[in-house]
Amino acid sequence: SVDGKYRNDPDNYIFTDKFFGSLYGDESQGYAVTDGLFAYWPISEYSSKSYGKKSTLAKDNVCIREEWFRPSKCSDNKGAKTYIRNHEDCTPYLARDPADPAGPNVYQLGGTYEMVYTVSDFESCSNPKNI
């Protein structure tokens, strides 16, 4: 979080090249994450057969059943690939632009574009027994 224990610690902050990659992706590459463990992590191409509400995954996944992730409408509609996103984005890689006004954190949970979680959330998520 913005004022978390490791926020300004270059060795332990989660959004660094050592871990998840930079909090903001590379603007010149559509905010693609280009460093860290998720550098150039590919985003699946959308197909209704695989990811639509009638796919075999829908039974066990509310996100797919309710079609939260739909193909993005990229600027090149002539054969352009479509990627599973919850907002407009045409990069084929994991993209991170926390300040995107059309992005998932447009409402700035906790008053910030950064991740907001409690100490108990962190302890639970970082415990290998819970993975």
Give the key terms.
single chain; 131 residues; little secondary structure; 2 strands; 11% helix
Produce a short descriptive summary:
The chain is mostly loops and 131 residues long.
Physical arrangement of strands within the biggest beta sheet: 1-2
What is the share of helical residues? 10-25%
Shape: globular
| Mean of all residue-level pLDDT scores | 78
Q: Classify the secondary structure makeup into a structural class.
A: little secondary structure
Q: Give the uncertain stretches in residue-range form.
A: none
User: Which sheet architecture does the biggest sheet show?
Assistant: 2 strands, antiparallel
The secondary-structure element order is: HHEEH
Number of strands: 2
Rounded to the nearest angstrom, the distance between the terminal CA atoms is 21 Å
What is the number of helices?
3
